[in-house]
Amino acid sequence: MSALPTDAPVDVDVPRPVAIAHRPQSLLLSFLGALVLDADLPPLPSAILLDLLADLGVAEAAGRATLKRMTQRGLMARGQVGRTAEYHLTPLAEDVLREASARVTSPAPFEHPEDEWTLLSYSVPESRRDLRNRVRARLTWAGFGGLRDGLWIAPGTVDVAAVLGRSDLAEVGELADAFAARVLPGTDVDRLVHRAWDVPAVRQAHACFIDTWSRPPQVPGSLAQLTLLGADWLWLLRTDPGLPAAHLGPDWPAPVSSELYRRVFDAVEPAARAALERGLRATGRIA
């Protein structure tokens, strides 16, 4: 499923050299993108969501607080049937998840046409720190790394109008200039890549993902396992924008990560979907 682009009201994870500790909202968005988006399911009783989070080590109070925040942020809509609260995706959440799914489900999410780059220049006043943070999160998801203050670069050709096109970033889009670029002779691309991105941290992120999912972690059930896989994958997609492997050495691990994610997802997803349907049947939501 989908990271979700990080301009959405989600938490931005950063590269960690050890197992990743995801926030509850990141876990729920992973689950919703993988199994609920476009699945024509009824609203989900809160118990299903809270039990899933509990299987992943999230206390009930923290789970309920997360559902409340997601509702306040417009990502979930809450209903009531008798004494049972139930939740469904909002149009905003559906848009965010669908947008992210293109990269999440891509067979080669870390690859771009060779020697294609996008340059972006923009300016946001220091006093608008909230806006600066939203822009940086959005650009990071889109694959941009910072060359210097206000100048960003991304591998491949990025649709900047789409990246900055959300209503809460409209004022930035009006002050941004973007260019499709190619490297001129004499440019040290290796140095450029290492200046814009923390390449050792990106490599370590791949190593962490591969180490974790080569021996899938033992969690209670396929629903929790698929959710954790998706959250780890989104973290990796945010960390590696698709750096050009030609400049990173012959053993760059991105292809291994891609193959591993797809293999584990295909193995776990049918059982997870069946488990969700059993849960909905047990609560009377489906026949």
From TrEMBL:
Q: What is the top-level taxon of the source organism?
A: Bacteria
Annotated Transcriptional repressor PaaX-like N-terminal domain ranges read 23-90
Q: Which Gene3D superfamilies match?
A: 3.30.70.2650, Winged helix-like DNA-binding domain superfamily/Winged helix DNA-binding domain
Q: Name one GO biological process term.
A: DNA-templated transcription
- Pfam families this protein is in? PaaX, PaaX_M
Please report the stretch or stretches of sequence annotated as the Transcriptional repressor PaaX-like central Cas2-like domain. 114-184
Q: Which InterPro entries match?
A: PaaX-like_central, PaaX-like_N, PaaX_trns_reg, WH-like_DNA-bd_sf
Q: Which residues form the signal peptide?
A: none
For this protein, the parts annotated as crossing the membrane are: none
Q: What is this protein called?
A: PaaX family transcriptional regulator
Species of origin:
Blastococcus saxobsidens
